[in-house]
Specification:
The structure holds three protein chains of three kinds. In chain A, helix 13 (390-398) packs across helix 14 (400-407) and helix 13 runs antiparallel to helix 17 (478-486). By secondary structure, chain A is α/β, with parallel strands linked by helices. Chain A has a single domain (49-504), classed as Metal-dependent hydrolases (TIM Barrel). By secondary structure, chain B is an alpha/beta fold. Chain B starts with a strand and ends with a helix. Chain B is built from 18 helices and 22 strands. Chain B folds into three domains: 5-46, no CATH class; 51-118 and 293-432, Rossmann fold (3-Layer(aba) Sandwich); 121-288, Dimethylsulfoxide Reductase, domain 2. The chains are: A alpha/beta, B alpha/beta, C mainly beta. Chains in contact: A-B, A-C, B-C. At the A-C interface, helix 2 of A face loops of C.
Amino acid sequence: MSLLIKNGIVYDPINNIEGEKMDIFVSDGKIASDAKDAKEIDVNGKLVLPGGVEGHTHIAGGKVNAGRIMRPEDSRRGAEPRSKLTRAYSGCSVPNVYATGYRYAKMGYTFLMEAAMPPMAARHTHEELIEIPIVDKGAMPVLDNHWMTMECVKDGDMDKLTAYIAWMLKATKGFGIKIVNPGGVEAWAWGKNVSDLHDRVPNFDVSPAEILKGLSVANERLNLPHSIHVHCNRIGSPGNSETTLETYGLLSDVKNDDRQVMHATHTQFHGYGGENWGDFCSKADEIAKYVNSHNNLTIDLGVVMFCDTTTMTGDGPHEFNLYRLTRRKWSNHDVELEVGSGVVPFVYGPKIPPHAIMWAVGIELPLLIDDPWKVMMTTDNPNGCPFTFYPQIFAQLMSKKKREAMLEEVHPVVNSHAILPSIDRELDWNDIAIMTRGAPARLLGIDKHGKGHLGIGADADIAIYDIAPKEVDPAMDYKSIERAFSYTAYTIKSGEIVCKDNEVVAVPKGKTFYVDPEIDDSVMDTMLPDLKDKFKECYSINMANYPVQDAYLPNPYKISTKGT
Amino acid sequence: MSAENTTVTDVVCPFCGSLCDDLEVEVEGNKIVKVKKACKLGKSKIMGHQRIETPMIREDGEFKEVTYDEAIDKAAQILADSKRTLSYGWASTSCEAIEKGIHLSEVVGGVIDSTASVCHGPTVLAVQGVGSPGCTLGEVKNRADLVIFWGSNPVHAHPRHQARYSYNAKGFFSDGKEDRTLMVFDVRKTKTADKADEFVQVEPGSDYKIFSAMRTILSGNEDVVPDEVGGVSKEKLIEIIEMMKKAKFGVIFGGLGITQSRCRYKNLENVISFVDEMNEHAKFTLIAMRGHYNIGGFGQVCAWETGYPFAVDFSRGYAWYNPGEATAVDVLNRKECDVVLAVAADPVSNFPRASVEYMREVPVIQVDPYPNPTTEFADVVIPAAVAGVEAEGTAYRMDSISIRMRKIIDTKFLSDEEIFEKILNKVIERKEGA
Amino acid sequence: MAEQKITIKPKESFKIPVDGYIIGPDNMAGKSADDINEMETWHGNQVVNLGALFEITVDGSAGPEDTTITLEGDFSRVKRIGSGMGNGKLIVNGDVDMHCGAVMMGGSLIVNGNADSWAGREMKGGELIIEGDAGDYVGSAYRGETVGMKGGKIIVKGNVGDYVGEHLGGGEIEVGGDAGILAGVNMIGGSITIEGNADLPGAEMTNGTVTVKGEVEMLPSFRFEGTESVGSVELRKYTGDLAVRGTGKGTLYVK
């Protein structure tokens, strides 16, 4: 199908296009300079963006499904009947695979990165990913609490570690290195946690700092498109910003000419001061200060909104603590030799002081960070809130008036323990386009693979919103922002119109992106005997049955990398 | 396949929830001649037994042999025209087939339920109340120093479980049974109990009270607990709890003794809460001893497809979940359905009499490799390949780990996945036009 | 004052359950018989007009609070009757199927017969009276919710099944006969009174009151507080359920 999208106001930050009226040609699924027999869509001054890139979201795999199984009460709230074209929807914070794909696509998103894949259960993640309609996707295996990782780090054997990581990426068809509470999750397998970056992990005698630095070395040696993706220790705790800043500092001297060396995820959950819930406060300013003065670190937000949602992370001990705090139902799943996870339903209330501050931190961060290219827009779906809250979040970032209206409804502690009330900055269309398209694509390294921009040859993933940027002042008319970003006028995926005015009109299957790092056989051979031993002695599954088979990626997109 | 003798290794056993994946199968000219490392249950399954040889349609009370296409056409017609199909079974086939089955139920606006509803459905219900404090089986093998089987007799139903995962299994931090205490709680002394370090006999139907007593003791209120609960002395319960608190890693494997006895899913809620509360003192987990090799898979697939793990009613176009209402036994007892689709299961053998009697009154479609009492009730019979032997596909172990089952030999039979793909397409065509 | 009277009779004996969610004063008040005949609902996987399933007569026209709907006959395969109703009166002269009066907010639903399970599920207000027996989960929550019934009153003159008042948050439930197991399980408020027998009542309760006047099988996790006169009867008073980490502050009165 060929398309000609006429008269759109285009924001394509990667190609330095900032609100230009221009025509976009689509041919053979790609952005083209011309198109024969193109179907014309005259969007008449409406906003045209590349398809949204969701850089960190929990949508597929064991813990997401544990959330679904555990929460029939969430499933029933999101129910919508099937149609000839679409399957039935279920769920709000833990939607079924169909609702996930349809809702993201209707909002204009065309690429989703599953944030945490347990390697031994990677098959499960891929089984779900391929059922999510329309969007392209990938998944990041969690690799930091692995016994092999810790042993290599302990021995200082970076070759072996690099080989192990390469093996794991190939075996899991994974995208990059995800780190979650390094050291802490192994400690949790015994019911414990780590308390700071220099704690020693029981039985392995390494520290979280050492693990993180080791994995960064492996990441750079493999020349992976993305940097290490880090969920810091001490998530959610008062005063954790100290650990967060220290974590950032671990790689302050490390450089990569092409991209960041560390991506710190859901930074809102790691930006707190105080010593207990009583003096809990925002440290978004200190986080922002660090980000502003360092060019090798990027973040994503993890914005909290007031809602009934489900927390789910690979941070087993943290989820246990949430269960103890709230006494809500709790699902836990420790995975041998590798990872952990926990799922606990959670309600964020505007009148609850710590929640009000958490919300403030999530909105403060992008307003205090000068360079939007360092920021990916996320809610850590569904931990902060379901992704369906994005329109409200955009409105708050673009409109101080909207923030003031919200501030009236939240606990007044934000006036003394948060920064938001004093911030005047309002983001503009370009900033939003950067944080939701340009930056995520670039930070993940998929801009080079046709994502996040509308340059010639890019994937024709396009979102057209029913709002005229030249006519609307988002700062005043934030309600229009909320309305317009709730669903697109058109979502186009690989050149095909898939959504129109909040209806799904086509359900192509997306591609699964994964990274296949090149590694010398001789280096691999230093690692394999040890790994084979682990399978023989410690794993409960045979090595031959472990890797994710091709059957689980019927539409693969392989990114090959050459090591340094 | 060659006529030579080959050994297929790393074979995944399609029998019980242990989903052992270390089997070795010798094949001679497309015939399985030997199965190594399996228990006798798995061996019997893989060696094979009597099969439904051809598709059949019942005419005037007698089975007539037909082609696959004829049987599939007939099945599709019955399903497409139905007002309330009950689709039941699904635990002994692959996830890929299950996905098709769920899609089919959505299209025909019927009810789909798995064998969980007569097995570990209560565990799933309990998870919906209080969550699931679990781990993979390798965690048990590597770390557990206290292993408890409650209402479960693995020697009988999961023969290799203890050697591969739980009691005898050696791991990184454990020398196997040398380092472990094995406790069994059951209503009688089972073969598993024979080998236990401690066997506690409980009165039938008293598990709920025992869990409540244990939690009360754990909370520091032992003074209110009577001297004896469910046949167990209070002293004994206190002693057991003290021992549990000193464990490095405790695991409770729960079986049908708790899911199917009085209080049912509330038993599981109670013991899961106990495990949660134990975590204040020691690392504790709970794993359900799932019976069929892919009952876990049904729950997983159904959850990601519909939002619910079993007992789903699609009659209003979206999924409505309610065990007790959309569970197979209840739908049959109430004579609600006008078609029964039995897949890889034998409801006639396992269901209460009233439910079974009702199956005489409605068209029954059976899709299964094996003839069984349900076949006698069927109006359309479609033979399937054996998943894990004759067809590849995914299955989920009792600890939610998925493994891809291999195809070991060729077969003339269509797989469940293929059968349901065809039925689904024909039903959609009939109901909605091409 | 204007009144509306509607009568509904089944045209046949249903085997496949009918979804009766639309039967209620709020949905039917002010409508004519023709209107109501054309209202749609589900019967199995089919969307049908009410008129195809029921004989409907209408007398007068009024608002919901002044509307009385009388169901005559066997409604034991009509689910969700009176579900969500907020006003008016709904009388069933016969048995009803599951979920009758679910999520009720007001008005009065009277069943002169037996009710199946989940009667009054998640009720918020109004009154539900069942002259015969009811099934399991009277006044309960939906699967996975932390609270179910929050207000209103349910009276079952006969027996109830298991889990009556499961996850009760508020309101009152009265049972004239026996209850099955685990009456009041997980409750956090409200009150349940059972004239007959009950086994293991008050399990996991952390607040609210359960009274069992007949024979009772007790849980081992309640603290005896002494005896108390309740009405004209001397009952034993317990607090608990202490199994809930020792925090249960519910009250259990038993014979």
